[in-house]
Design brief:
Blueprint lengths: L5 H16 L29 E7 L12 H15 L8 E7 L4 H14 L4 E3 L9 H6 L4 E4 L12 E3 L18 E4 L1 H10 L3 E7 L2 H16 L3 E7 L6 H10 L4 E5 L2 H14 L5 E4 L8 H4 L4 H4 L2 E5 L10 H9 L8 H18 L7 H8 L25 E5 L1 E6 L3 E5 L7 E9 L2
Helix pairs in contact: 2-12, 7-8, 12-13
Amino acid sequence: MAGRGRARGLGSLAAAVLLLLTAACGSRLPESDFTGRPAGSEPPAGDRGPLRVGILASETSPVGGDAFTGPRDGAKAYFERLNDRGGIAGRRIEVHTCDDGGSGVGNNACVHELLDEKKVVALVATTVLDYAGAKRVSDAGVPDIGGQPVGPAYDTYPHLYSIYGSLAPRNGGKPGWRGELYGGTEVYRYFKREHGARTAAVVSYNQPASAAYARLVTRGLKAEGYRVVTEQVDFALPNFRAVAADLEEQDVDLVFDAVDSHGNARLCAAMDDVGARVTAKVTNAQNWNSSVEKDYKDAPHCRNALWVTGSSRNHDETGHKAVREFRTATEDSDTHSQWQLEGWAAAMWFTDAAKSCGSEVTGACLERYLNRDKAYDARGLLLPVRFEERARPPETRRSCVSAARWKDGKGWVTQGGDMTANCFEVPQLGYRP
C-alpha cells in the first residue's frame, strides 16, 4: 500500500516490476568469489584527490531501457553542476556508473567493481531490480545514499539509506520488524478528504505478485472506509474493456492498479472507449514524467484524470527554487521525471553530508550526517526523511502526501497545496514483502 518509507516505495514500483520480480534472475555469486576490501575500509586520511561515488542502475533490465535510469540521470546532472562550481572544497566528484542488467549476478559484479576496483566512498541513487549485493555493501561499511527501495534491502541492512527513510531496526536479519514492513493509508485519506471519494476500484492481473499488491491496496482502502471494487484480468489476454465497463457500472470514484505501464495505458484507452469517467486514475511515481501525452495518446479523458502521489515535490512545480534549479540543470533532457528529481536530491544529500566532513570525507563521517536527529528535506524537494531504529513499529504515524494531476498543455499540476501541509495521522498496516 502507499505510505512513507518502504511501503511508499512499493507503491511507486510495484506496477512496473511486479511481473518480473518472480522471473528475474535470482542467482548470486558467492561472497568468496570476491577478494573484497575489508569492512569499513576508507580512503587514506588527507587524500585530496577526487571524491569517487558509484551509481548502480539496472539500465538494461528486462523491465525496459529507461525504467531504472531516472535517479542515475538526476544524480549525474547534480554532480556535473557541482563540479562546474568547483566541487566540494575544491575536490571534484568522480562518478562511476555500473549497469547490472537487472540480475543478481550482474548486481554482485557491479558491487565488486565499484567497491573493490573503483573504491568509491559511497553509492548514490541506487535503482536496481535485484539488489543481490546489498549485504556486501553493508558489510563493507559503504553508505548507500538515497536509493530507491525496489526490494526490502533498505529496511534490512545498516549503511543503506533509502530516499524515503526508515524506522525499522535494519540489523541485517529479517526485513523490518521480524520480517514485516509497515505503511500508512495517507493516500486514501487524502482523496477522501479532498474529493469526498467513497468507492475505489483496484485492477490487477491474475498473476501472484500483481494480486498480492492489489490485496495490499484493497486492505488500505478498506481501512479508510472505502467501498472497494476488485477487478482482475488475464495477464496473457487482458480484457480491459470489460473492466472499464464494470467501472462505469459501479460508479467508481478512484481507480488504483497493480498492472504494468503498458497495461495502464490500455486500461485508460478502454475507459475512454466506454465512457467511464472517474475523479482520479491514480498511477505510480514511475509514471510521473513528461511523456504522458505520448504514453496515453489514445485516452485524452482518462489522461486528464491521471493523478500521482509520492514523497517528493512535483518536478513541474517550477515556482519552487530548488525545483527550478533542477529543471535548469536538466533542460536538455528529452523528458523530465520524478525519479530524476529524486536522484538529484540523493546527490544533494551526499554532497551536504560530505561538506559536513571537512577535509576527510569517509563513510563513517557521511553516516554521522545521515543518522543525525534532524530530518533531511533536500531544500524542500523531499518530505522530511529520517532514520530511526524503533524496537516496535508505530501503530499510527503523521504522514504527508505530495500530489499532482496531469493537465494537457500544463503538465503535472500540484494539488492540495504544499505537500508539507497534506498531512494526516493514519494507521500503519503491516505486510510481508
